[in-house]
């Protein structure tokens, strides 16, 4: 089936809100709300089409545009391939040149309706923050064993929540015995709740996906992060509210998409002391592998917050931090 290629813009303002526009008269789904954009014409790239559409529809010139995710959707009138880009800066004053209404919205408070059906996965992806933290208590364990390691990490985690806005953490403690892991996860969840942060449990921290899902449910964690091995062995998406996975190549990325996970983590992008023998992908290969991919992808491996612009330019949703947390 031939798909119509469409460029779509997730325009984000300084408050972190995104812009939705209402479809005007003369178009299918009259009155529905969508992300601005339009059809990619013959000979155009997606960024070129996006620039033209934003000028024609909203009278603005985008100055900071990042490739993001690509989703297929089948409507009754057409099948489309939507190339979403995030627009972080622009010049000009927004106004509806086609007399369409538009509104700034937030993930937690979408006040306009109805939305085009293709937008549901996009809103869910926008709920993911740009930084994905990974716990490191067992990696940098001080003298005193797990108890001291737990106390030291939880102090750093609280600082990251309060002072740096961390809102997503993976608990990855493969060296913790079961009782200590349960206590650590429980305390981590309790710290995260007042900040609205989510906590996911790495399936490799226990003996597999089923056990990890049970422990996450027991402790109130928000979901799972699958190891690459557990990802490839999974027959279906785990029963978890949120689920991501570690990927190291195209086969694993493809599997994460087939299972309908919420995001993937790809790397290592740069050399890292935690996996010194793993050859780094580099940004060029990272960008090649995530091009036209349907899920948000975090870059991992030697990442720091300062790497966010490079990650965005390469199509990443954000960066995953272990030592950089």
Topology:
Blueprint: E1 4-11, E2 18-22, E3 33-34, E4 37-39, H1 46-58, E5 61-74, E6 79-91, E7 102-105, H2 120-126, E8 131-134, H3 145-164, E9 168-171, H4 178-192, E10 198-202, H5 209-219, E11 223-226, H6 228-233, E12 242-247, H7 250-258, E13 263-266, H8 282-290, E14 297-299, H9 308-313, E15 318-321
Parallel strand pairs: 1-6, 8-9, 8-15, 9-10, 10-11, 11-12, 12-13, 13-14, 14-15
Antiparallel strand pairs: 1-4, 2-3, 2-7, 5-6
Helix pairs in contact: 3-4
Structure in words:
The chain starts with a strand and ends with a strand. The longest helix has 20 residues, at 145-164. It contains nine helices and 15 strands. α3 (145-164) runs parallel beside α4 (178-192). 41% of the residues are buried. The protein is of the alpha/beta class and 325 residues long. It is elongated, with a radius of gyration of 21 Å. It folds into two domains: 4-124, Nucleoside Triphosphate Pyrophosphohydrolase (Alpha-Beta Complex); 131-321, Aldolase class I (TIM Barrel, Alpha-Beta Barrel). The strands form three sheets. Strands 8-9-10-11-12-13-14-15 form an eight-stranded parallel beta barrel. The mean pLDDT is 94.
